[in-house]
Every structure is written in C-alpha cells, then in structure tokens.
Amino acid sequence: MPPTMSRMGDVLAGFHAAWEFESDSVLIRYERGIRTPKLLQALGERRIPHEAIAAVTLTPGKRGTVVLHAVPRPGADPLMEAAAGQLKDGCDPYRLVLPAERETLAEYYADELRAQLTPDDCGPPDRYLVAAPETPLQFKAYDGKASFDGKAVAFRWFWTGASSAKWKAGDQSFLVTDLSGVEWRSPEVFEGHLRLLRRETPLAQPAQADQDPAAVVFGLGYGPVHESLPFAASVLAAVRASGPALTPGTVGAAAPVARRDPADIAERIRHLGELHQAGLLTDEEFTSKKAELLAEL
C-alpha cells in the first residue's frame, strides 16, 4: 500500500529530479548529471510550499514518459515571475518527467498533493512563497558584468561590447530601494537582456536595452539562462521585499525610439552575423533584423 503524504520523506524520482513530499511542502532536488538542464543544476534544490501551488496535472510526455506538473500560483515564485513564460519545458523547475510505467504511482502522488491544496490559494499572494536564489550573484553579459550583493545591483561595462551611451554614463550601481522591478528577456531570443526598472524615472529609460545604462544585453554565450534568470529572480525578490513594486505593464509607456549611433548599429549587425553563423538565426531572420537596424540610421 502506498504511503500517505502525512508521512514525511516520501520520494518520487524521475529524470533530472526527485520530489520529496513533506507535510507542508514539496522538496525538489535536481540532479547534476550532464543531461540535466543547466538551470536546474544551478538551482540545486527548491522547497515549494503547498500554498505556492495552484494545481497539479499529470499528462503524457514524449517517448514513453509522463509529466507530473505542479502549477505555481502567479506571483508565488520570483523565478517564475521573472521568467514570464519564457522557459522551455525541459527547464521548467515544476515539471517531473517519469517513465510511463510509473504513471499509476505518479497519479497517486498527484491526487495526494491535490488534496493538500486550498481552493482559495489560486490568486497572487501578498508575498513570495518560494525562496529566491541566494546572493551574492554575478554573470557576464555581452556588454558588461552584472553583480548583486542583496542590496545593490552593479553594472561594469566592457569596452569591447558596451555602446557609446553606456560608456558616457559610466559604470552603474542601483540600490534595490530605487527599483520597481526587473525585465528579463531570455538570451535564447534575439535582443535578450536584463533591464532594471526604476521607480522615479521609468519614462526616461531608453526603449533599446543596448542604450540603457540600467540594462545589460545578452549575446552568444553571454548571460545564459542558468546565470541571468536566478540573478533576475533574486533582484526581483529583494525589490518586492523593500516595498510595493510596479509590474512591467504599469511602469509607463516606452520612451520614443532615438536614432542610434552608426558605430552601435555596426556592432549589432556584427552580433547578428555571429548568431546567424551559429545557426541561431535563419537567413530570413538575419536579413529582416539587419534591415531593421539599418532603418534606424
């Protein structure tokens, strides 16, 4: 007879992770094997309180697998809020992939976990319920190095990648108390970046991240998901803890697009060429994006 969830320590192991069911939470431990996505390896383990879960699903997966998914409540986890739906399924820390022959056991645990959920715990909570990655954190972006010590975010520009606008502004340091939020755009898409949203002057922020001293831009091999997303989540959690924060949609309208420096355009086109050669952009995407940049001259 399967154990009941009232007994702590019941473990369900799948590919890349194992879920340990506790009386008030699920402790997820991620494997560090070569096949495990780097984001999950970087997270190590996470404790997900039952109150942070909105629903539990069990669905067929690929190639003879089933997927147990604990759907997080909106606003309960700073990592998922920062990701804003941009994570690939394989990097979703709330998915447990199991062999299809373990479907019956997975269904049992799914039912047991559903029984622990409260119907009223579906809306956004008034605070984060899942812990953010611990500081200090840092990573290298295409145009600078970002670091966070829990109280302030610092950007130090690289002369090989930073735009003239950022060089003129100089290295930057932002107190958490001066920020309203974080905008993370995955490095796996064109023009990925990490932008800090400021409380007092949101309308003054340039629309283009490569011109904004409050943003670092990603590039091929720079600002990977497993480094930049935990960083963004940690900053977001600190911002929320420091006071009421605005969501990206309520910060304000984007500033008018200014004409770029020709040298910056040339640098962006060079970067496009790198993505194209690496196979990350199709011929059509490369031609289209190049034309967009040239149109801004």
Helix/strand-derived category reads alpha+beta
Taking strands numbered 1, 2, ... along the chain, how are they ordered across the largest sheet?
A: 1-2-3-4
Major sheet attributes: 4 strands, antiparallel
Distance between the termini: 71 Å
Counting copies of identical and different chains, the oligomeric state is: single chain
Total number of beta strands: 14
Radius of gyration: 21 Å
Query: What's the number of helices?
Result: 7
Describe, in plain words, how this protein is organized in 3D.
With 297 residues, the protein is α+β, with helices and mostly antiparallel strands. Helix content is 27%, strand content 26%. The chain is built from 7 helices and 14 strands. It has helices at 38-43, 78-83, 103-116, 164-169, 225-242, 262-277, 283-295; strands at residues 10-13, 17-21, 25-30, 45-49, 53-60, 65-72, 95-99, 137-140, 144-148, 152-157, 172-175, 179-185, 193-198, 215-217. The strands form 4 sheets. The protein has a 4-stranded antiparallel β-sheet. The protein has a 4-stranded antiparallel β-sheet with strand order 8-9-10-11. A 3-stranded antiparallel β-sheet has the order 5-6-7, covered by helices on one side. A hairpin with a 3-residue loop joins strand 2 (17-21) and strand 3 (25-30). The protein is globular and about 60 Å long. The chain starts with 9 loop residues before the first strand and ends with a helix. Mean pLDDT is 86; it is low at 1-7 and 245-258.
